Amino acid sequence: MTNGVRNVGGSFAIALFTSLLISGAAKHAAELAAAGGKPQAVALQAYTSSVNDVFLIATAIAALALPLGLIVGEISSTS
What we know:
This protein is mostly helical and 79 residues long. It has helices at residues 2-34, 39-78.
């Protein structure tokens, strides 16, 4: 059961981060194109900015999960 939940959770995380990557790249590309950037530079910068956004979100999730993981570890070691 644990492995199944882990696999499904990983699949959902990949789907979520991929969706955030694509939508973020489109948003950044529109902003950069409106600012008058070169088309090749716009695409590369939009993708790079979107990857940075996804890593920032993943870092925030990990930072929120770390204390919870430590609490669970502490509870399970005292039981």
